[in-house]
Amino acid sequence: MATKVEGYETTMLITKAGQGVGIRRGDKATVHATGVVKETGKKFWSTKDPGQSPFSYQAGVGQVITGWDQGCLGMTVGEERQLVIPAKEGYGAAGFPAWGIPAGGTLMFTLECLAIEGKDR
Q1: 3-117 in CATH: which number?
Q2: CA dist., res. 20 & res. 89, Å (int)
Q3: pTM of the complete model
Q4: Which of 2, 53, 59, 108 has the maximum number of C-beta atoms within 10 A of its C-beta?
């Protein structure tokens, strides 16, 4: 059953457990990610597509959309998680037309944590 990310409207569902210490604010996280627009069912991005590679970012500091940034905190290596991100915690009222994300679009991400780098690791 999906649960809300504390303090946000984004929901998460862990579909496969991982192990180790989870992603913390400031860590460099590397993930596989597939994003779909909930309203249309259209995939707009996947790191598993030909020519793509895993995505790395610094967690919890605003380098990615809010729902993703907060929804991946605590994720462990090997874990798979689904996030449903409302527009206000995604690309907002403007959407992201270049990627086919409509104004006010809700995003669904399937994520797999591949690696975590940070202090005390």
Answers
A1: 3.10.50.40
A2: 28
A3: 0.94
A4: 59
